[in-house]
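Appendix B, example 12.
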Amino acid sequence: MLIGVCEDDPAIRRLVSRALESAGHEVLSAHDGGEALRLLGPDSGVDVVVMDVGLPDSDGRDVVQALRSEGQSAPVLFLTALGAVHDRIAGFHAGGDDYVSKPFDIKEFLLRVEALGRRGRPAPPTVGGLALDPAGHTVRCPGGEALLTPTEYRMLAAITSRPGEVARRKAVVAAAWPDGSMVSENTIDSFIRRIRVKLESIDAPVSIETVRGVGFRLS
């Protein structure tokens, strides 16, 4: 398999890459979120993505959401020092499929990667026109660029990472507030309104539709 690895620690990146190569896999590696977006997109051909959460330029969960919004459907294994339950939940809602906390056993890591590779994932339908930047927290389209707050970015990314589907409110909240904060319905709706205004300001080709009682989707 071709495994995409994004890890900023050179020692861990080498360890993981060598273990994967020794097991007969090819490795495409990146050291930060920006490089991961350039190298690990839907045209990269990677079968599994291994993503560190604590990257120097962005949160790995934000990077995965950006990759998902571009149509990357490869299974994702998050690799992180974070171990709290709400961190794992946020990772799954950001588009992850499995989670390994550092320090980890390299044999177990290989088994988890290979299990994800066997599972695979069908490519989702895409809704084109938007490009998300997890480092700058911006959204771009041919009509321009808008700066988002980190929370706005994560909410929009959670919705755009599920093209053709309804992103449930709980999933959007878990992705947008990864520390497990409790937020009211009014707060969620207020953030959605702000995002809609920013999308309209750049003539975005899509808008956020509220599916009453369920969540949100792009239309």
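The radius of gyration is 17 Å. The mean pLDDT is 86.
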